[in-house]
Design a protein that fits this description.
The protein is an alpha/beta fold and about 500 residues long. It is built from 17 helices and eleven strands. The protein has a domain of about 290 residues: Amidase signature (AS) domain (Amidase signature (AS) enzymes). It is about 40% helix and about 10% strand. An eleven-stranded mixed beta sheet has the order 1-3-2-4-6-5-10-11-9-7-8, sandwiched between helices. β7, α10 and β8 form a beta-alpha-beta unit. It is globular, with a radius of gyration of 21 Å.
């Protein structure tokens, strides 16, 4: 089993095509790995029978010579993606028992390309969180946690996805990124996490948090695997009014091209007081790697960076308060019958169904949208968002990509920041601006902290220039030679 778990998705596809392994063998290895690492709580549901059925169908297509790009590759699905016939809860009590009669566009595209569904992965409730601690199923655990130390946060909101890929209980995984919810957990868990340009991947069938910010993306263990999965996820969808019909660039050629002659922007505003010295050192090392590879480092300014977090935490809760108004116990999900009126049922169902963090954000958003405060908060935040986008547009007029840290720290112990929302929000300080601007970003594991925990570097590119982003990311991956392995991973040590 452990030998199969070591294969990248690209290598696994080659082995499947060469008939060296079967999709059923590969899938069974990952199902066994998920059971072996169940103490990490990264899955909320394993779809064992469905996975083996899909794997058998993949084997048939492989024999017939009609295999798709992801044929036979086991994939975990964040519990925010609606999956036909499989319970989808957004890790919230209010959606307990909801079994969608339809499939999200992104997962439909993955299954059409031959991917195999392993199960549903843990996440923060309605994707609201930075440590996967708001899930009704409890937190996902970072597999880098030492057996004799405290459990570490896997990051959020896609903590289960990052944990599963790092623990080798999923070869690939889906995630969503609203303010860093792919890139931050990827950095914490030592895997590759990528947020595409807004509109690249359909949002149809994904439980909404903040509709103008949410974007689906892939988790993988290598940059090439990330590109492979992204190519299957992306594409125009008429069912999503925000979907774009921009052609996908040639990612394979980009990753093979190197960075010679490219200009890489280094934003002065991302050097923050109190940042972990190991992260500063890694950022400087990343610049040296790219310089050695032939790129030019260019200091740039993104002057409105300081306003990104307050801007985000007005816009995102405002959109959440609107999106989550549909959960009332009437049509689907959990219903609490209390009192004699319809309003009583609404109030009881929402009070029991929504967790503390979700309630906090609904109230913040409702306040920001209320009469007398709309102009002062929400409208002003939208104007600031435009300025942040203008900053990036001006920067990309002179550089091909931007290099920053992915997170201000390595993974922290579970529970230490849960009672301080502001401190928790600061985990997204380097990732939020890209969501506000709608540009793509990728986190690549590139080094270790003084405690031996993974650290990531973030590469940003202009809207719809994912090829330039992958171009730089591949060089960082090659130059860093990152090969760290978590202790609590399948085929290594038992959690």
């Amino acid at each position: 089993m452990s030998d199969l778990l070591q294969l990248s998705a690209v290598d696994a596809r080659a082995a499947l095509d060469a008939k060296e392994i079967t999709a059923t063998e590969l899938t069974q290895s990952y199902l066994d790995a998920a059971v072996q690492t169940e103490a990490l709580n990264n899955y909320v549901q394993l779809t064992h029978d469905k996975a083996l059925e899909m794997a058998a169908a993949s084997d048939a297509r492989l024999r017939a010579g009609t295999a798709g790009p992801l044929e036979g590759i086991p994939v975990g699905v964040k519990d925010l993606f609606c999956t036909e016939g499989v319970e989808t809860t957004a890790c919230s009590a209010i959606l307990k028992g909801f079994v969608p009669p339809y499939e999200s566009t992104v997962t439909s595209k993955l299954w059409a390309d031959g991917a195999v569904m392993l199960g549903k992965l843990n996440c923060d409730e309605f994707a609201m969180g930075s440590a996967n601690e708001t899930s009704v199923f409890g937190p996902a655990v970072n597999p880098w946690s030492q057996s004799d130390g405290p459990d570490l946060a896997a990051g959020g909101s896609s903590g289960g996805s990052a944990s599963a890929v790092a623990a080798q209980s999923a070869l690939l995984a889906t995630g969503t990124d609203t303010g860093g919810s792919i890139r931050q957990p990827a950095a914490f868990c030592g895997v590759v996490g990528m947020k595409p340009t807004y509109g690249r991947c359909s949002r149809w069938g994904i439980v909404a948090f903040a509709s103008s910010l949410d974007q689906a993306g892939p988790f993988a263990r290598t940059v090439a695997d990330s590109a492979l999965m992204f190519s299957s996820m992306a594409g125009f969808d008429a069912k999503d009014s925000t979907s774009t019909n921009s052609p996908l660039p040639d990612l394979a050629s980009a990753m093979a091209a190197g960075v010679k002659g490219m200009k890489i922007g280094i934003p002065v505003e991302y050097q923050r007081d109190g940042m972990d010295p190991a992260i500063t050192k890694l950022w400087e090392q990343g610049q040296a790697w790219l310089t050695d590879a032939g790129a030019e480092m260019v200091p740039i300014s993104l002057p409105h960076t300081a306003y990104a977090l307050p801007c985000y935490y007005i816009i995102a809760p405002a959109e959440a308060s609107s999106n989550l108004a549909r959960y009332d116990g009437v049509r689907y999900g959990q219903r609490i019958e209390e009192g004699g009126t319809l309003d009583d049922m609404y109030e009881a169902s929402r009070a029991a169904g929504f967790g503390e963090e979700v309630q906090r954000r609904i109230m913040i958003g409702t306040y920001a949208l209320s009469a007398g405060y709309y102009d002062a908060y929400y409208l002003k935040a939208q104007k600031v968002r435009r300025l942040i986008r203008n900053d990036f547009d001006a920067a990309f007029a002179g550089v091909d990509a931007i290099l920053t840290p992915a997170t201000p720290s390595a993974a922290f112990p579970l529970g230490v920041k849960q009672d301080d929302p502001i401190t928790m929000f600061l985990n997204d300080v380097f990732t939020v601006p890209a969501n506000l601007a709608g540009i793509p970003g990728i986190s690549v594991p590139a080094g270790l902290s003084s405690d031996g925990l993974p650290l990531g570097l973030q590469v940003l590119a202009g809207a719809f220039y994912e090829d330039k982003m992958y171009q730089v990311a591949k060089v960082i991956e090659t130059q860093s030679g990152f090969s760290g392995a978590p202790q609590r991973a399948a085929g290594r040590a038992h959690p």
